[in-house]
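Hi team,

Filling in the usual template for the complex we talked about on Friday. All components are listed, including any nucleic acid strands or ligand strings, so the model treats them as one assembly.

SUBMITTER: L.P.
PURPOSE: interface mapping
COMPONENTS: two
RESIDUES: 492
SEQUENCES:
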Amino acid sequence: MMKRTALFEIHRSLNAKLVDFSGFEMPVQYKSIRDEHLAVRHHAGLFDVSHMGEVLLKGERSREVLQELTVNDVWSLKPGKAQYTVMCREHGGIVDDLLIYCLSEMEFMLVINASNIEKDFNWILEVNDGRAEISNISDEIALIALQGPRSTEILSKITDDKPGDIPAFEFRSMQISEYENVLVSATGYTGEKGYELYCNIRHINVCNLWENIMAAGEEFGITPCGLGARDTLRLEAGLALYGNDITEETTPLEGRLGWLVKWDKGDFIGKESLLKQKKEGVKRKLFGLEMEEKKRIPRAGYPILNSKKEEAGTVTSGGLSVILNKGIAMGYLPADMKVGDEVFICIRDKAFPCKIVKLPFYNRKS
Amino acid sequence: MNHPKELKYTREHEWVRDNGDGTVTVGITDFAQSELGDIVFVEIDKLGESVEKNSAFGTVEAVKTVSELFMPVSGEIQKWNESLEDEPELINNDPYDKGWMITIKMSDSSELNDLLTAEDYEQIIA
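RESULT (copied from the run log):
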């Protein structure tokens, strides 16, 4: 039996196309991935991403545990701020990428990928070794993402607070429509300005909240968006997807996440292996690729060939860039390759030319 | 979902219109276009060639996924719908008329009897 989010009845009433995503029955699209994608780029989109997992760490030693568990510097994280980071194994492979919310000096919320909830929770427990109080609150938290250039105007209509004043990667507890204690976070996974609203479903009627946001957004062109658009948007924004672009077999240094690793913060799991890799130099790196010919669409798993048409890597994420109207992809290639290099992607046994390009594929204007 | 009674269907979600002159017109069903979502590209690999029933003759790329197209009957692919080059969305908007894909000159018209009726097809996708 697939799990359903607290917003399931909304998806059903909107006639969403539903798919199994990591054991959750989730909307992949409502009407059209392309229209939903464009709505987020030009107006606003509303997503149910309640499948994401949340883990709470409490107690005096929480920071110490997180400092070991993750590669970024948790000492610098102040209440009200969120930090993007990864957890690694000893060999440097990525367990998951996550956001850490500093709720107070002694309380942190980790937001993890739906596909990894059980694995991550067990790993966190193992590393924690009894030091902090840890709970998996994934089933209590619904997560609504409001993304797009009009998102601040929309949210401001249903709150007396000032969501527009929240700096990127910070959050505030706000009253949104009639619901108090909505954790409003200036974060997202689309490459657009936007908010993620964490709601405890025991206190908040999230279906009603969803409808209130939709009503407030109507005049701004808000559109409900499924996981299909979420994927095309994040790819265009050059954001890695766990399980595709980053895995236990790839390190943050290979996966363009080296900027997260704070070498001078003290010990953390994977540091030794990552330092070694840094000294020796990475052998492969995650690159962005753009097809030369329009309408050729690379997909995950397709081989990438070098200029001599020898196999050099594999596409980890691929698809149509709705904004550029051409095929785009990410994939691992030898680290000595560079932006501007001509390579090929094999689509059904034919090699089509593409170029290594700078990531992201799309940059928002403001 | 609309699946006209006068057409025949395959398990691979194609429809077949018997033109009565030894040729058939082929496209994908309303159900198929809806499952694929926004179609961005159609490629017919075997134009002008004789292709066996059930063999792949092309592919259709949607934003989310790619799907192969299979011959509903054996024969020579005579024409393809060139409007799809610039307007692949015709398949989403009008799968049975403007969104047609190819015409086939059948090598064995008795194969038409193996195809599904609209009723059979609707049971398969139910």
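MY TAKE: Chain A has eight helices and 19 strands. The first strand of chain A starts at residue 17 and ends at 21.

Thanks, L.
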